[in-house]
Amino acid sequence: MVKKEAANKASTDRIVVDNSNLTELKATCDEAVERILSRRPEADGASAAKTQGFAPFKASHLHTDLRLALGFTASAIMIGTSIWAYFVEKEWKRNKQACAIAVVVYTILSGISMIDSYLQGNAIFTGTRKTLSNRIETEHLVISSPPLPKAAKKDAKAANGKPILTPPAYTLQIIYTRKSNKGKSLLANKSESLPLGHLGEWFTEEGEFVEPIFEQRLLSGLQKAFGQ
Question: Which UniProt keywords apply (predicted)?
Fold first, then answer.
């Protein structure tokens, strides 16, 4: 019974995407980064994080939350003003000033949201964690995922004469700092690329995402970059 439940859970947890859609492939990897880095090892059995002793980060969703709040507020203002103008104050001479103010506020909030999205750029994960060795250390990590390069052609060709393509390489950009003494002492400050391999190494021919392989590559690469 337990084995059957485990098998059912494993089947429902499978992630299968369209192999021909690079946007979907990249989005799957990007989403997995936060899921892996913020997941507690005990919640996932014998995961790579538990095996390697990788402490989880606490993810920050500041940019996402800010844009959601701005979008909700802007929409509420426009909808509320429209309802008021349609049902309460129907005369245009009297409601035009309020409508104009609502449009201006909506434009400003939308502009702030666009600026925030631009500032976030390609960042897919921002997180912090605290560790205790001889002292309390605070680590801050920002991971960006640049656009995928084009697939590379191999010298050899397939049996049908068509060129063999190597899937695009998936590379992350990281900014990592480690501080102690309540942020006053800087222990480490790194900004570098983190190549994990090409997409074909953790996506099967059927498009299934093999997360354990991706997780092992990600955590090993980060620990090496951190100097741990």
Answer: Endoplasmic reticulum, Membrane, Transmembrane, Transmembrane helix
What percent of the chain lies above the pLDDT cut of 70? 85
The residue among 146, 150, 196 whose CA lies nearest residue 173 is: 146
Q: Would residue 180 count as lying in a domain?
A: yes
**216 and 108: one domain?**
no
CA angle 86, 90, 92 (to 5 degrees): 115
Q: Is residue 12 part of a domain?
A: no
pTM for this prediction: 0.84
Residues 35 and 146 in one domain: yes
- Tens digits of residue pLDDT in 71-100: 999 999 999 999 999 999 889 888 999 999
Residues 112 and 185 in one domain: no
Residues 93, 130 within the same domain: no
What is the number of domains present in the chain? 2
Report the alpha-carbon distance of residue 70 to residue 153 in Å, rounded: 45
Residue 7 lies in a domain: no
Instruction: Return d(Cα 50, Cα 228) in angstroms, integer.
Output: 15
Of 55-64, 107-116, 147-156, give the lowest mean pLDDT range.
147-156
Residue-level pLDDT at 42: 64
Domain membership of residue 211 (yes or no) is yes
- Residue 151 to residue 2: CA distance in whole angstroms: 43
